[in-house]
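Late entry, evening session. Most of the bench is empty. Finally got around to the prediction I had been postponing all week. Sequence below, unchanged from the version circulated by S.P.
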Amino acid sequence: MLKTRVLALLAGLATASVSGFSWAAEELVVYSGRKDKFVEPVVERFTQQTGIKVLLHSGESTALLNKMHIEGARTQADLYLSNDAGNLQKGSELGLFQALPGSLVDAVPANLRAADNSWVGLSARARVLVVNEDAKGLDWVTSVFDLADPRLQGRLAITTSANESYIAGATVYMVEAGADKVRDWLEGMKANVDGQVFNKHSKIVSAVANGQKDIGLVNHYYIYRHLAQQPGAPIQVRLPDQDGMGVAWNVAGVAVSKHSDQQASAQKFVEFVVSPEGQKIFAEVNREYPTVPGVAAAPEVPDAGSYKVADVPMTKLGELRDATIDLIESVGMP
C-alpha cells in the first residue's frame, strides 16, 4: 500500500494521509519507489542543510510512474525516485520529466543517466551469483547463462519474473547476447526451478545459506546484508561473465516532474543527491555503488573498477523493457 511520510527539519517523522497534506512553499513531494529506510537518511540531511521539507509518497516504482502518468498536470509529485532505470526511461519517453541542466548532473557518467538529462542515476547495483560454499561441483558456473544447465535442476533459486531487477538483468543479457540466447536461458532456468521461485531476493540468499538451494541470482547487496547479520554464513559472491559480457548493472535514480511548480527546489534536491555527501549517504545505506566516480562504496563491497561490467547504457533498460517482458511472458516464466 502506498504510504506518505513527512520529514521535517530537525524533527521526527509524522505519518499523514495523501488527502491531508497542506502544501507549502519550500516543501517537496517525492514519489518514491524505494523503501523509506533507504531514502530517509539522505532526505533528512538535505532538509538540515536547506530547510526544505520533503514528503515521501512511497510505493512500487511502476505503480508510482503510472500514477504520475494518469495524474498528468494535476500530479502532486515534484520528483520521482525509482529503484529501476527501466521505469525512469519509460517516464522520460512519456514526457513526464523536466530535463536537468547538464552542469547539475554531468558528474554522473553519461551511460548512467538519460541522454537528455531528464533523469539521473544515483546508485548502482550488480547482478551476481550467490553460492553456498559447501555445495559440490559448481566451479563450472561462471556465467548467468550456465544457470540454464540441467545439472542445476532443483539447485537453483531465482525470483519471480515480475521482479524489476530480473527484468532489467534480462534486458542487459538480451542486448549483449540476443533474444534467442535469452529465450534458451529462460527456458532452461524454468526447467531447473520447476515452478518454485522466490518473491524476495533476501529469501534466495537465505535459502542458499541454509542449504535449501546451492546457487541463486540476486543483486549484490542482499548478500552483504545477510553477511552483516550472520557473518559466518557459508555463502560467497560470484561475479559472472568476467570472460564475456560482464556483470549486469541497474541504477536507482531521480527525475524532476515536468509539472512541478517548484523547479528550483527540486533541482536543489538533485544537486544534493549527486554531491559527494549525498552520494555517500544514498549509496552506502544499502551497500550500493555511488554513480559519481571517486565516491567510495561501502568497504565490504567489491570495488566497481575491479571487475567487468556489461557495456549497456541504462537507457536501454527502458527502451527495451516491453520487448523483454514480452519474451519472458512468451516462455511462461513463473
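Two things to note before I forget:
Residues 1-25 have pLDDT under 50 and may be disordered.
The longest strand covers residues 120-132.
Will write this up properly tomorrow.
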